[in-house]
Amino acid sequence: MRKIGVLTSGGDAPGMNAAIRAVVRKAIFHGLETYGIYQGFSGLIAGNIKKLEVGSVGDIIHRGGTILHSARCEQFKTKEGQLQGLEQLKNKGIEGLIVIGGDGSYMGARALSELEFPCIGIPGTIDNDIPGTQYTIGFDTALNTVLDAIDKIRDTATSHERTFIIEVMGRDAGDIALWSGLAGGAETILIPEIPGDLKDIARRLEKGMERGKKHSIIIVAEGVTTGTDFAAKLKEETGIETRVSVLGHIQRGGSPTAFDRVLASRLGAKAVELLMEGKGGRAVGIYKDEIVDEDLFSILEKAHDFNQNLYTLSKELSI
Ligand code: ATP
Asked: I need a surface site. Which of 52, 178, 245, 289 has the fewest CB within 10 A?
């Protein structure tokens, strides 16, 4: 293999730049040429492809977002779009592709692998919802951003003796809500995997108030309901007035944490190694601090691992 490509796709995540940097530098270190494909799969179809040098990825390790930009591309879900993308890769003489993104992006990589083009997936999404890895690139940074917000809101909750509902990202996976809720000492955490029972939540809040607790933090993952809807339901059930804070897109940006930068560097390098070994149709990940790789097809059949122990602990500690 002499020439490889790299693209970022789906929602951006802090640490994607560190992964791009690792791919480019590792490839150049081993004598390969690297091409950046801009705007995800739509840029691939359009042929928006440029050669990346060592200096192209200088001064980006600490930056959030992705220098390659990202996009959602419906056309790539069709065979016609995929064949157009393949044609662009072949025109440039690119022989392998690294796709950094979420599970949707993995499906794009799988489609190219089915057309016998070697593709490696790198898990890049703040949601931490991809099977085949314990952690995705961007999750740790997003978690710390949310935690910072929780800590700040807690100051106001304590001063004004109020209950706050904080809505965080997580459509199908509740990891951001669960981890930030545990780290931030939230009284209640609502996640898509275990949405919780309103009556039970109300009883716990009332019990806390009876023993003199004057403020509470409730974390709601967006996949369960909106913060506003939950506030209305809680008021109907208990009469408790709450304040709602929706964190929104601040969760996706920011300088990546050391953990995300190191993870991205390790995963990026591993993806290049796999292509150099002539492997395709794989995705890289981390398990117990070991960098691993797994069949892309089998990963897409699996569900994301939910950490039941962490959820149980959060319940035990928020009595
Ligand atoms: P996030 O988790 O941040 O949302 P994602 O990678 O899951 O990231 P998606 O929008 O689901 O984000 O997918 C990104 C892109 O991957 C899509 O816009 C499309 O171009 C491509 N893609 C998704 N599903 C398929 C599919 N079934 N076949 C081919 N390509 C696909």
From this structure: 289
C-beta neighbour count of 288 within 10 angstroms? 6
Cα 70 to Cα 39, 40, 57, 113: the distances in Å are: 5, 5, 16, 21
Q: Does domain 140-252 have CATH number 3.40.50.720?
A: no
Ligand 1 pocket: which of 7, 8, 9, 45 to mutate (most atoms <8 Å of CB)? 9
Calpha distance 142→253 (Å, rounded): 8
Distance 74 CA to ligand 1 centre (A): 8
Cβ–ligand 1 distance for 10 under 6 Å, the answer: yes
Q: Which residue has the tokens 């897409």?
A: 300
pLDDT mean for each 10 residues of the chain (319 residues): 96 97 98 98 98 97 98 96 98 98 97 98 97 97 98 92 95 96 96 90 88 90 97 94 96 97 98 98 98 97 92 91
Assigned fold of 3-138+256-299: Rossmann fold (3.40.50)
| Alpha carbon nearest to ligand 1 atom 16, residue | 105
* Catalytic residue IDs: 127
Whether this prediction's pTM lies above 0.90 is answered by yes
